[in-house]
Amino acid sequence: MASTATLRKPASGFRISRKMLPYVLSLPALLVCIGILIPFITAVIYSFQRYRLSQPWARQFNWGENYLNFFTDPAFWNTLKVSLLYAGITVTLELLLGLGIALLLQRRSTVNNFISIMLLLPLMIAPALAALMWKLMTNPSFGILSYLASLIGLHDFRWASSPSTALLTVVLVDIWVYTPFIMILLLAGLRSLPTQPFEAAALDGVPRTFVFFRITLPMLTPYILTATLFRLLDSIQQFDIIYAMTQGGPGNTLTVFQVEAYLNFFQSTNVGRSAALMVILWAITYFLSNIFIKNWLRLRERARGEA
Amino acid sequence: METTSTLEKTLRLIALTLVVIFFMFPIFWIFLMSFQTNETILAIPPSIIFTPTLSNYAALITGKLTTAAGTLDIAFMRNLGNSIFLSVTSVALALVLGVPAAYAFARHKFKGSEDIAFTLLSFRFAPPLLVLLPLTQYFQWLGLSDTYFGLIWVYQLICLPLILWIVRGYFEDISADVEYAYRIAGHSWFATFRKIALPLAGPGIAAAGLLAFIFAWNNFVFALVLASADKQPVTVGALAFVTSSGIQYGQIASAIVLSVTPTLALALYAQRYLVEGLSLGAVKG
């Protein structure tokens, strides 16, 4: 390595010492992001205050009161329940569907490659706009899906505007947007697996279910874990689809963490509660992202090694 | 695959057809709807046979929406302009800031470099509203509320981590020996970076830039919280348009089509890099 070489004076003039160079290079990027740490700390402070925008004079530290109140607050338990339910259902279904599609497309062929490129398109549409597309398709007076529902006997199926089917509808949009994400990651994983174990199993006439559960699945596990955690981190924070589709409604059916915090801040102007909600969500994502990063690093090293 | 039976082939074909229909139909349907008048949209049963009209697009482009109640001004083209401006400048800034930093992280294992890189990555996973809500107040004090400058700064939270981690991977793939040989020949550090490292990592930088553009374009929550009507990108603007225009379904559909076309086109153009980019370099496409 060049670590002992002294830096020649560049023809054009200024000189940066070798030791300082990496800091100089990364400093601008850091400065831009450090600005973000300040509001983060502010949010934590707010979460320990009694702070309503409508009553700025009454602002004072109440220490853990915002958090303690959550224990007896049915709205909070609803938020926690809906967030976990949403994340759990979407990620499970997307994983099963994504794995299934990846297996269908595993063999390299012109048709399969073309389909896998086409399936990327929903992922590239802004989730907020995807929600609007589905809103048009589920409109009670002309939506094609409402029409199809009426054909199979579900007259007056209300989709996102009924409390009983709102979760189902936003989950459907989430699946439409994000299944391709899991699919392409697992497809790339499947195609990068070594071929020898499969050839050996084929020679020995091993049954295909056995090959799938004992060879394919274990070898694919790091990819599945990375894709799942990636999605879980995003899904528990879902805002765009739910807000664009129902703004958390009807009632409080879909008030997941970020939607509830948004409504608390802008509608009921309860800054303290809003900040406390976000700090709790941050704690959940921090815990998940630590597991994620460890797993992701291992996969990344493997990808580098094979490159 | 030699053992594949006809039954299995048929089942695979059916499954794939259903998958393609589920994922492609909404795009196809909204596209059709954008060429329809309200009358054909509201017709029951819905039909894919109709006389296409460009009137929806014409109304959006001229900004004048003629309804029974009179003429309504729509600012959708302004939203589209905002989206282009915000995404392009954010990605440009992120490249200027991020590429040198990525090079530093890839080539020099300096003290704390991994910690800093991970801190930057963790921004990708933090709940955006945690930072955004207090930021609205800081922006008011700093006079940054509802400015393009403020928005572009916040958009760095999306673009920078992406560019940093993808480009870093590409720099790490370049053999350090090539650069070292060039340095030995008496060239400065900067010349080596410019003449050797940048061109070799070029495709990776381009791919990271395109992905960052797509993510910036698709962002919703930042502008929802921080921008007023005349600075809003299409994601927020389209939602506001739905509320204001109410029942102009054809125009809503054509607004959606115009809003998603740039990202879809870019994705098709750069699809080779998408897998690697979306997994932040953990999975090779």
TrEMBL record, chain A:
<feature type="transmembrane region" description="Helical">
    <location>
        <begin position="211"/>
        <end position="233"/>
    </location>
</feature>
<feature type="transmembrane region" description="Helical">
    <location>
        <begin position="84"/>
        <end position="105"/>
    </location>
</feature>
<keyword id="KW-0762">Sugar transport</keyword>
<keyword id="KW-0812">Transmembrane</keyword>
<keyword id="KW-0813">Transport</keyword>
<dbReference type="Pfam" id="PF00528">
    <property type="entry name" value="BPD_transp_1"/>
</dbReference>
<protein>
    <submittedName>
        <fullName>Multiple sugar transport system permease protein</fullName>
    </submittedName>
</protein>
<feature type="transmembrane region" description="Helical">
    <location>
        <begin position="166"/>
        <end position="190"/>
    </location>
</feature>
<keyword id="KW-0472">Membrane</keyword>
<comment type="similarity">
    <text>Belongs to the binding-protein-dependent transport system permease family.</text>
</comment>
<dbReference type="InterPro" id="IPR035906">
    <property type="entry name" value="MetI-like_sf"/>
</dbReference>
<dbReference type="InterPro" id="IPR000515">
    <property type="entry name" value="MetI-like"/>
</dbReference>
<dbReference type="InterPro" id="IPR052730">
    <property type="entry name" value="Sugar_ABC_transporter"/>
</dbReference>
<feature type="transmembrane region" description="Helical">
    <location>
        <begin position="21"/>
        <end position="48"/>
    </location>
</feature>
<keyword id="KW-1133">Transmembrane helix</keyword>
<feature type="domain" description="ABC transmembrane type-1">
    <location>
        <begin position="80"/>
        <end position="292"/>
    </location>
</feature>
<feature type="transmembrane region" description="Helical">
    <location>
        <begin position="117"/>
        <end position="137"/>
    </location>
</feature>
<feature type="transmembrane region" description="Helical">
    <location>
        <begin position="275"/>
        <end position="293"/>
    </location>
</feature>
From TrEMBL, chain B:
<keyword id="KW-0813">Transport</keyword>
<feature type="transmembrane region" description="Helical">
    <location>
        <begin position="148"/>
        <end position="167"/>
    </location>
</feature>
<dbReference type="InterPro" id="IPR050901">
    <property type="entry name" value="BP-dep_ABC_trans_perm"/>
</dbReference>
<keyword id="KW-1133">Transmembrane helix</keyword>
<feature type="transmembrane region" description="Helical">
    <location>
        <begin position="84"/>
        <end position="105"/>
    </location>
</feature>
<comment type="similarity">
    <text>Belongs to the binding-protein-dependent transport system permease family.</text>
</comment>
<feature type="transmembrane region" description="Helical">
    <location>
        <begin position="117"/>
        <end position="136"/>
    </location>
</feature>
<protein>
    <submittedName>
        <fullName>Multiple sugar transport system permease protein</fullName>
    </submittedName>
</protein>
<dbReference type="Pfam" id="PF00528">
    <property type="entry name" value="BPD_transp_1"/>
</dbReference>
<feature type="transmembrane region" description="Helical">
    <location>
        <begin position="204"/>
        <end position="229"/>
    </location>
</feature>
<keyword id="KW-0812">Transmembrane</keyword>
<feature type="transmembrane region" description="Helical">
    <location>
        <begin position="12"/>
        <end position="32"/>
    </location>
</feature>
<feature type="transmembrane region" description="Helical">
    <location>
        <begin position="249"/>
        <end position="270"/>
    </location>
</feature>
<dbReference type="InterPro" id="IPR035906">
    <property type="entry name" value="MetI-like_sf"/>
</dbReference>
<dbReference type="InterPro" id="IPR000515">
    <property type="entry name" value="MetI-like"/>
</dbReference>
<keyword id="KW-0472">Membrane</keyword>
<feature type="domain" description="ABC transmembrane type-1">
    <location>
        <begin position="80"/>
        <end position="270"/>
    </location>
</feature>
<keyword id="KW-0762">Sugar transport</keyword>
<keyword id="KW-1003">Cell membrane</keyword>
